[in-house]
């Protein structure tokens, strides 16, 4: 009797366990390559560990965090990360929105134009960094040629070696690379704008700005919000363009959180402090994500959804 | 008349934006086909000089360009294959099946999309050094897959959500297994999205820099991103050669993206962005 019951449940088993069989490899992969390294990073952050001999670890508790958070240089890193992120996101979203609105009309070659505008996003970041270094070159770069051609500045301007101008140059490069992504995403959201509503508003005598505010913006707002979150997180994690262009310099003026972390680990060989910066960075990314969802839930409630 | 002026003005603005978008890649081409004497002369050359096509032949001989591109190709193909292998069945399970821990998996996929690669580079370096995965292309494929697979799974799930379940039910009555259904019915229906995620995973591998820069020191295992970055601040390689290497590395990426960008956008907006 008992035996037969067992056989019956066993017969049911395959279907019941199928979802777990489907997800098991992926779940294991995420545990090994995300959860375990995260845990290791946390453990490392409570130790003094040198890259020269990572197996030799000395437990130091929260000292690394105290050192990092009390370090004026790290305050500068946080300030630069904030400036970099805010300008990347507002520039990326703003320019992306303008270009999307510009491309959102019927003309011959519209498909080709929409494809060509994605070139910056498709180009590998290291190649982008390399060609912008060349274009920003003080003596032979095309940017200075353009500026002197326009009569703005006859003197060759030093961009990437100048503490005042390196961050703007890196920001310019980054925004050039990311605006197409925003444009393309906003363009596809614009297809959801009801043309009857827009036409009705125009017939009612609304000018372009009020049509945008009343009809277009409410439709694309959720997409723009998610876009802003993605661009924020991508700005926090961007390494390649900044590292190749400036390595965080000159004088630390482009030293964002990830660059600082990398320098601590692989230039100063100090894994413990680097891991502490990493944990701070991961927490920042998670907090930003959480605040975003909290804000968008509140906005949805306010909109009565 | 007024309207037509506005229209022409708008077309001009579109052309200006396209010019700005394409210019740096064009400038790579021009620089690679300008003689060194002209590069450092007073006024820049605005059109490529066809006589300088030989730069590309010189780049092949004087730099390890082919080795770099070959290694990048191995990384990109490996990352794509492993990501798809890992992602297809879970994407189906997330879309169609109910099971305990589903929310946890969805949350895990979301959070891992938010994790910065460079912030995990320290612990991964430590772990890889213990398992002899430093200085190995396999190690790079494993690390890149970790960052490609969440977005691939997420986009595939979004695409599968869009297929009506009735299509599968007929096959299930005929006794087709779930895996069989996924392979013979679901995958063909989401072919455009499959193409999009293939490209996304491929270029995660092709473009990746921080892991390759950190984990690889063997010259014969260097990938193109690291090779290209190694020219920065190094003065012995002429600029035309450097940009020739840069363009050879950039063009495949741009061409592939342009070919499938429509599906990538559809996939990102349905699965990745709105999801």
Describe what you observe in this structure.
The complex is a heterodimer of chains A (305) and B (275). Chain A has helices at 2-45, 63-70, 72-103, 110-116, 119-122, 125-135, 142-149, 166-190, 195-203, 208-237, 240-246, 257-266, 271-302; strands at 47-49, 57-59. In chain A, a hairpin with a 7-residue loop joins strand 1 and strand 2 (57-59). Chain A contains 13 helices and two strands, in the order H-E-E-H-H-H-H-H-H-H-H-H-H-H-H. In chain A, helix 1 packs across helix 13 (271-302), helix 8 (166-190) packs across helix 10 (208-237) and helix 8 packs antiparallel against helix 11 (240-246). Helices cover 74% and strands 2% of the residues of chain A. By secondary structure, chain B is mainly α. Chain B folds into two domains: 2-54, no CATH class; 63-273, Orthogonal Bundle (MetI-like fold). Chain B has 13 helices and no strands. Chain B has helices at residues 2-32, 36-39, 54-62, 65-96, 102-114, 117-130, 137-161, 166-173, 178-189, 191-207, 210-215, 224-229, 239-273. The longest helix of chain B is centred in the C-terminal third of the chain and has 35 residues, at 239-273. The radius of gyration of chain B is 23 Å and the shape is globular. The interface between A and B is large, with 81 and 94 residues.
Q: Can you describe this structure in just a few lines?
A:
Chain A has 305 residues and is mainly alpha-helical.
- Average per-residue pLDDT of chain A, rounded, comes to 88
Number of helices of chain A: 13
Total beta strand runs of chain A: 2
Strand order of the largest sheet of chain A: 1-2
Order of helices and strands of chain B: HHHHHHHHHHHHH
Approximately how much beta-strand content do the residues of chain B carry? under 5%
Q: How does the SSE layout of this entry go?
A:
The complex is a heterodimer of chains A (305) and B (275).
Chain A: H1 2-45, E1 47-49, E2 57-59, H2 63-70, H3 72-103, H4 110-116, H5 119-122, H6 125-135, H7 142-149, H8 166-190, H9 195-203, H10 208-237, H11 240-246, H12 257-266, H13 271-302
Antiparallel strand pairs in A: 1-2
Helix pairs in contact in A: 1-13, 2-13, 3-8, 3-10, 6-11, 8-10, 8-11, 9-10, 10-13, 12-13
Chain B: H1 2-32, H2 36-39, H3 54-62, H4 65-96, H5 102-114, H6 117-130, H7 137-161, H8 166-173, H9 178-189, H10 191-207, H11 210-215, H12 224-229, H13 239-273
Helix pairs in contact in B: 1-13, 3-13, 4-7, 4-10, 5-7, 7-10, 7-13, 8-9, 10-13
């Amino acid at each position: 009797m008992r035996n037969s019951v067992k056989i019956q449940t066993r017969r049911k088993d395959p279907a019941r366990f199928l979802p777990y069989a489907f997800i098991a490899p992926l779940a294991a992969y995420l545990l090994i390559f995300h959860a375990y390294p995260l845990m290791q990073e946390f453990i490392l952050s409570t130790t003094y560990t040198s890259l020269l001999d990572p197996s030799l670890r000395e437990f130091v508790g929260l000292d690394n965090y105290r050192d990092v958070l009390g370090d004026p240089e790290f305050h500068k890193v946080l300030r630069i990360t904030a400036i970099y992120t805010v300008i990347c996101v507002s520039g990326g979203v703003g320019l992306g929105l303008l270009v999307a609105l510009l491309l959102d009309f019927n003309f011959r070659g519209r498909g080709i134009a929409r494809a060509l505008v994605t070139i910056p996003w498709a180009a590998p970041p290291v190649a982008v960094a390399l060609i912008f270094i060349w274009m920003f070159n003080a003596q032979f770069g095309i940017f200075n040629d353009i500026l002197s051609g326009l009569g703005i500045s006859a003197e060759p301007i030093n961009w990437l070696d100048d503490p005042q101008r390196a961050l703007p140059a890196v920001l310019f490069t980054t925004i050039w690379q990311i605006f197409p992504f925003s444009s393309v995403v906003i363009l596809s959201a614009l297809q959801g704008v009801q043309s009857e509503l827009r036409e009705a508003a125009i017939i009612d005598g609304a000018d372009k700005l009020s049509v945008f505010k009343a009809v277009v913006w409410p439709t694309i707002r959720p997409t723009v919000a998610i876009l802003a979150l993605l661009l924020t997180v991508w700005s926090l994690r961007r390494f390649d363009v900044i590292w190749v262009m400036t390595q965080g310099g000159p004088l630390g003026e482009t030293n964002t959180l990830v660059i600082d972390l990398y320098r601590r680990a692989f230039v100063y060989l100090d894994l413990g402090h680097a891991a502490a910066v990493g944990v701070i960075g991961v927490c920042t990314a998670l907090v930003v994500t959480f605040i975003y969802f909290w804000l968008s839930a509140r906005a949805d409630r306010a909109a009565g959804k | 008349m007024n309207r037509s002026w506005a229209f022409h003005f708008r077309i001009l603005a579109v052309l200006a934006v396209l010019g700005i978008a394409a210019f740096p890649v064009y400038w790579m081409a021009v620089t690679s086909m300008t003689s060194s004497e002209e590069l450092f002369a007073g006024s820049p050359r605005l059109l490529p000089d066809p006589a300088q096509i030989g730069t590309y032949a010189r780049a092949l001989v004087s730099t390890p360009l082919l080795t770099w591109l070959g290694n990048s190709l191995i990384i990109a193909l490996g990352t794509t294959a492993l990501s798809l292998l890992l992602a297809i069945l879970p994407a189906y399970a997330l879309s169609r099946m109910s099971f305990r821990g589903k929310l946890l998996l969805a949350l895990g996929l979301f959070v891992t999309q938010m994790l910065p690669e460079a912030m995990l580079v320290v612990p991964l370096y430590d772990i890889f050094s213990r398992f002899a995965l430093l200085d190995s292309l396999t190690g790079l494929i494993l690390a890149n897959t970790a960052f490609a697979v969440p977005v691939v799974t997420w986009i595939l799930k979004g695409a599968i959500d869009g297929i009506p379940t009735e299509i599968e039910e007929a096959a299930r009555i005929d006794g087709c297994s779930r895996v069989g259904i996924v392979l013979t019915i679901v995958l063909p229906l989401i072919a455009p999205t499959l193409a999009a995620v293939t490209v996304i995973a491929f270029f995660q591998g092709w473009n990746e820099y921080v892991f390759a820069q950190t984990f690889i020191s063997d010259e014969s295992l260097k990938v193109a991103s690291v090779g290209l970055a190694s020219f920065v601040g190094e003065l012995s390689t002429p600029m035309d050669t450097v940009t020739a290497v840069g363009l050879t590395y950039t063009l495949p990426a741009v061409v592939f993206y342009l070919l499938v960008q429509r599906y990538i956008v559809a996939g990102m907006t349905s699965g990745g962005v709105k999801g």
